[in-house]
Amino acid sequence: MLPYSRDPKFWTKSKWTDVHSGKSFAITTKLPAQPGLVRVKSIRDVYEDYKYHPESKSADTNGEPASRRTCGLLERLHVHALSPTM
After folding, report:
1. What kind and span of H or E run contains 15?
2. In angstroms, rounded to a whole number, what is the distance separating the alpha carbons of residues 78 and 85?
């Protein structure tokens, strides 16, 4: 386990362990990742992934499911049960 550090240079110079496999890796945020390095997402990557992420529980102003192109205030999507099941 590594000590906490606010310095990103420390993060990329350290070895990280995959808790599932037990293997250790060095990390990078650069593309393309060099052999032996694992690329981790930067804050920018996360932002780009969710920039146009559809919100399946929300509706647009017409009551239709929200999509990538939906803009403005989202409303709750109304769900209608077809039949009760026990």
Report:
1. strand 15-17
2. 19
**Does the N-terminal peptide bond of residue 32 adopt cis geometry, omega within 30 degrees of 0?**
yes
The span from the CA of 29 to the CA of 12, in Å, is: 9
Rounded to whole angstroms, how far apart are CA atoms 68 and 63? 15
DSSP conformation class of 8: H
Give me the average pLDDT of each 10-residue run along the chain (86 residues): 84 89 90 87 89 81 85 84 79
What's the token pair of residue 76?
Answer: 């709750």
**Global confidence as pTM:** 0.53
